[in-house]
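Thread: quick sanity check before group meeting

JM: Hey all, I'm pulling together slides for Thursday and realized we never actually wrote out the predicted structure for the chain we discussed last week. Dropping the sequence here so it's in one place. If anyone has concerns about the input, flag it before I start.
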Amino acid sequence: MKLKQLAEPDEPKNIVVIAAHHDDIEFGVAGSVAKWVKDGHTVTYVIITDGGSGSNEPGVVRKELTETRRVEQLAAAKAVGVEDVRFLGYHDGMLEPTMDLRRDLTRIIREVKPYRVICQDPTTVFAGDGYINHPDHRAAGEAALYATFPSSESRPIFPELLAEGYEPHKVGELLLNLSMNPNHFVDISDTIEQKIDSLRAHVSQIGSGEDADNGALKWIRIRNAEGGKEVGVGYAEHFKLMKFDVPRPGMEDEETVDAAQEAMIDATNEAAAEGES
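JM (edit): ok, ran it. Output follows.
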């Protein structure tokens, strides 16, 4: 499939980027984030896990590593102009797409009211012949996917959020990172250096100096250059785009959409009741 360049909204919007780990955003989408911030959009990061499993070195104190990675993530976000970073503190390496996690993500989406949500593709298991996708990535992606739809826009789901003052919000589009079936790209030729600077902040993960330059930073340059070559630009990040602000056939009016959502929720509740009986 030929990838299309991602179209940008005509006016500044809110964007939420959800990731399992500190550094996931920097490896995957920081070039796009830097571009969006330059274009006037406001970006919020959501880091789901505490980062405490980010070292195999003996003697590492989990609490100290967690704090180190938090500081690194804040510096990485600052490098691309992101000021709002949320840390949810789930146990790194053991993440599951629970209802508690989906509720936490739904709460943030309803609070921030983003037009665009970016998350990891939960369907990606293998990438090439030498990489198995981290289960935390898939769990984070699944929870974010279903927080975006249907939870964030459906009043009957998580009614406790209504009591907290978080009204439903409909997200306009969802971008899946690390997808094996991308359909759009963002040209990051003008922001690749910001992306590199952002990733450089994660010293605990990629090292520093020549170790970083000849390792992770060199690899990400090559990866994004290959992504750019595929679409005819210098550097690019690829995504699978899902649009929710374009009516589906037969769903052009709001009443029809509401009725369809209510029917889906009723069917889900009935199935759950049957399973309990």
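AS: nice. The chain has a mean pLDDT of 93. Residues 254-276 form the longest helix (23 residues).
JM: adding both to the slides.
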